[in-house]
Amino acid sequence: MNTKPTSETGELHMSYEFRAPKELVFNAFSNADALGEWWGPVESKNSVIKLDFKPGGIFHFKMDFNGQISYGRFLFSKIQPYDLLEFTNAFADANAKVVKAPFDIQLPLEIFYRLVFTEHNGKTTITLTGRPVNASPEEQEAFNSIDADMQQGFGATFKQLSLYLDQMA
């Protein structure tokens, strides 16, 4: 995994390599059963409520941290099969309405993510960029301050994806 500090750019930057062709990696984002197997924090039980994988569509999911329930959602903005995925991510309620993060930190309500999929010699790299949407200076600072946590969280989620892909091979 390669990373750049968020504090230098105001954006999260990281890349992760998978031992699978990019069609297989990309398709793991487009299928509810697949997402149910690997998406989300490793310390929670995660489930897909709804997946409408198209520009303007939604991925709504539930996370159960030992009985503490929270929800999240993606709103897809751009999908170029096997090459690019763009979406806005937010914490949500049971009806997919955006809510504040359940933390004692003033995080932005929404974060835009861009995932670029590239393949070389049968291995796929996802290059991820994330940035707050309409963030106040305090929200941007809070986003910058959790860089290590976000790197660790995405790293663990992508490791789950890697294990899922290994089972598909």
Spatial extent as radius of gyration: 15 Å
The CATH topology label is: Alpha-D-Glucose-1,6-Bisphosphate, Chain A, domain 4
**Number of continuous helical runs:** 5
* pLDDT < 50 stretches: none
Distance between the termini: 22 Å
Mean pLDDT: 94
| CATH H-level superfamily | START domain
- Total strand count, please? 8
Question: Can you summarize the main beta sheet?
Answer: 8 strands, antiparallel
The helix fraction, in percent, is 25-40%
Strand order of the largest sheet: 1-2-8-7-6-5-4-3
The level-1 CATH class: Alpha Beta
CATH architecture: 2-Layer Sandwich
Q: Give the structural class.
A: alpha+beta
The shape is globular
Structure summary:
The protein has 169 residues and is of the alpha+beta class. The chain has a single domain, classed as START domain (Alpha-D-Glucose-1,6-Bisphosphate, Chain A, domain 4).
Descriptive notes:
Strand 4 (58-65) and strand 5 form a beta hairpin. The mean pLDDT is 94. This protein has one domain (2-168): Alpha-D-Glucose-1,6-Bisphosphate, Chain A, domain 4. The longest helix has 22 residues, at 147-168. The protein contains 5 helices and 8 strands, in the order βαβααββββββαα. It has 169 residues and is α+β, with helices and mostly antiparallel strands. An 8-stranded antiparallel beta sheet has the order 1-2-8-7-6-5-4-3.
List the helices and strands and how they pair.
Blueprint: E1 2-4, H1 6-9, E2 12-18, H2 22-30, H3 32-38, E3 45-51, E4 58-65, E5 68-80, E6 84-92, E7 110-120, E8 123-132, H4 137-145, H5 147-168
Antiparallel strand pairs: 1-2, 2-8, 3-4, 4-5, 5-6, 6-7, 7-8
